[in-house]
Specification:
Length: 212
């Protein structure tokens, strides 16, 4: 093991980088429709988009005309979201990208970790389902309460949560969105854009060669 190894950290986003959660979004549509039906709201496209992950920064305002309090609506929405996503992982319909296994090469020289806006339950499921407990030193996802929406990336809360486990060190953040770049800047990490569509680095071998 390199002497520099454990003092340097490579921290990964999960969805779209490690977990192929976006090529089949039928689970998200089903989860959102079920949540709206339980709340008593017509599952139109407009209403469904109010509950989608990319729109959660305005959740309280978006659901102000729905029956029930924002807290009640959020618990229903998140319950279906977690149930469907975990079920997809367990069934093998949502999988780790095949090249994630190559990261064991980097783990010889660096501490690897995960910070994701997905619920902690889902991040835990991903790591344990693929036996990555020995690959990643730590992993952090969001909490389950409505107020946890205010702590999503690019807010530094999840970084601070991770640092409590692994300590501070020279770190890179590997993400696929503009918000991930903002998150890295807010927490003092270097940023590498990693996408699966060619907009940034798009395979783990390329990333490994960069760090080697």
């Amino acid at each position: 093991m390199s002497i520099k190894g454990r003092d340097e950290r490579i921290i990964f986003d999960m969805d779209g980088v490690l977990l192929d959660s976006e090529s089949d979004l039928s689970w998200l549509v089903e989860a959102t429709r079920s949540a709206l039906e339980e709340v008593g709201v017509d599952p139109t496209q407009e209403n469904m988009e109010k509950l989608y992950p990319g729109n959660l920064d305005e959740f309280t305002v978006a659901v102000r005309d729905f029956p029930g309090t924002p807290e009640e609506i959020w618990k229903i929405r998140d319950r279906y979201y977690i149930e469907r996503k975990v079920r997809m992982i367990e069934s093998g319909r949502m999988t780790s990208f095949s090249d994630v296994e190559l990261l064991y090469e980097l783990a010889e020289d660096y501490s690897l970790a995960i910070i994701s806006n997905s619920p902690q339950i889902v991040v835990d499921e991903f790591v344990t389902r693929y036996g990555f407990e020995d690959l990643f030193s730590a992993w952090a996802g969001r909490g389950l309460e409505l107020e946890d929406l205010d702590r999503l990336k690019p807010h530094p809360y999840l970084y601070k949560k991770l640092v409590m486990t692994i300590g501070k060190g020279n770190s890179w953040y590997i993400g696929d969105r503009a918000g991930d770049r903002e998150f890295a800047e807010a927490t003092g990490m270097k940023f590498i854009l990693f996408t699966r569509d060619g907009a940034g680095m798009n395979e783990m071998r390329e990333l490994i060669d960069y760090f080697r």
